[in-house]
Design brief:
The chain has 332 residues and is of the alpha/beta class. It folds into 2 domains: 127 residues, ATPase, nucleotide binding domain (Nucleotidyltransferase, domain 5, 2-Layer Sandwich), CATH 3.30.420.40; 167 residues, Nucleotidyltransferase, domain 5 (2-Layer Sandwich), CATH 3.30.420. It is 42% helix and 19% strand. The protein is built from 9 helices and 10 strands. It has a 5-stranded mixed β-sheet, with helices on both faces. A 5-stranded mixed β-sheet has the order 8-7-6-9-10, with helices on both faces. Helix 4 packs across helix 5, helix 4 packs antiparallel against helix 7 and helix 6 runs antiparallel to helix 7. The chain is globular and about 65 Å long. Bound molecules: 5'-O-[(R)-(carboxyoxy)(hydroxy)phosphoryl]adenosine and zinc ion. 5'-O-[(R)-(carboxyoxy)(hydroxy)phosphoryl]adenosine (KG4) binds next to helix 4 and helix 5.
Length: 332
């Protein structure tokens, strides 16, 4: 029988809680900490303090939305890594306290497994095996979801994650934080007139590199400024986004061709990007691939995906000595 799960996620700058039953989300609450905007990026200590202040209210909000009380809950799920250690510890400590007081099982969830499982929420009938492109602030992975909780890595970034490249390029364009959505908005007003170089051209592996792309954009801006040339920031944003999206699509569809798997899912914060979604839709149609995208509210960090992952996870319930693990691995 499915367990009613109360899930908690505090790995970065979103304080989130949700009540889930299998793939069904009964109530989800997310507080996005805006305090970091002032500093141009996430300040770990500020994130931890905000989680401490917000978590009880966010959990209450999720329960209220689900019309459930603590007494209805069958298990507690919590992200215990990877992420910012102080931020993770707030969620893990809160989850342990609840599990202890209400005598409930405690299920640790890997943050990236959570993102992958956001696809199960948005697509009721999706089942493994399928290919998944995970694109977030810390990860750019192509993996095969062979079964529930069973993953095989077939490509990953060797340096910056694509979300990180979006954020750093946005900063170079003076757009502030969070950079990804701001860069996307600006790119809509421009054209991809500049061809930025692709790393790993002609290689046989399916890994990514995004740090060179970000550097190419920064050098391009400096060059034009030194020469006194006028340029449209929107064209630079559109050109960067075009190359990042094409690189992701080229490798992911190549992975589909090589593995013969004709189902592709995309998950993680960058999967909210409209240009990425559109490019994958067009290519999937052309190449006869079924494409699975999360609903926008489940692309960026949330706890509904953590609850769903706990329902499908091979992870066993943990004793109360569970700890946070900032660099927890999904693959051995
Ligand atoms: O999954 P997520 O919320 O947190 C991590 O696990 O990292 O992803 C956050 C990342 C950030 O780098 C953010 O800039 C990027 O996702 N992002 C976007 C968009 N929305 C969020 N990047 C490009 N376009 C977007 N619309
Ligand atoms: Zn995330």
């Amino acid at each position: 029988m499915e367990r009613l799960i109360l899930a908690i996620e505090t790995s970065c700058d979103e304080t989130a809680a949700a009540v889930t039953l299998g793939r069904t989300v009964l109530g989800s609450a997310v507080y996005t900490q805006r305090e970091h905007e002032l500093y141009g990026g996430v300040v770990p200590e500020i994130a931890s303090r905000n989680h401490v202040m917000k978590i009880p209210y966010i959990v209450d909000e999720a329960l209220k939305k689900a019309e459930k009380s603590y007494r209805d809950i069958d298990a507690i799920a919590v992200t215990n890594g990877p992420g910012l250690i102080g931020a993770l510890l707030v969620g893990v400590s809160f989850a342990k306290a609840l599990a202890y007081y209400y005598k409930l099982p405690l299920i640790p969830v890997h943050h990236i497994e959570g993102h992958i499982c956001s696809l199960f929420i948005s697509h009721e009938t999706l089942e493994p095996p399928f290919l998944c492109l995970v694109v977030s602030g810390g990860h750019s992975h192509i993996l095969v979801v062979e079964d529930y909780g069973v993953y095989r890595l077939i490509g990953k970034t060797r340096d910056d994650a694509v979300g990180e490249a979006f954020d750093k390029t946005a900063r170079a364009l003076g757009l502030g934080y969070p950079g990804g959505p701001k860069l996307e908005a600006l790119a809509r007003e421009g054209e991809p007139v500049y061809a930025y170089p692709r790393g790993f051209k002609g290689e046989t592996h399916l890994d990514f590199t995004f740090s060179g792309l970000k550097t190419a954009v920064i050098n391009h801006i400096h060059n034009m400024e030194q020469k006194g040339e006028t340029y449209k920031k929107a064209d630079i944003a559109a050109s960067f986004q075009n190359e990042a999206v094409s690189f992701l699509a080229d490798n992911t569809f190549e992975a589909a061709a090589r593995t013969g798997i004709n189902k592709i899912g995309i998950a993680g914060g960058v999967s909210a990007n409209g240009a990425l979604r559109e490019a994958f839709r067009r290519r999937a149609e052309k190449e006869n691939i079924s494409l699975y995208l999360p609903e926008l509210k489940y692309c960026t960090d949330n706890a509904a995906m953590i609850g769903c992952a706990a329902a499908f996870s091979k992870e066993t319930d943990q004793p109360l000595r569970l700890n946070a693990d900032a660099s927890r691995m999904l693959f051995e």
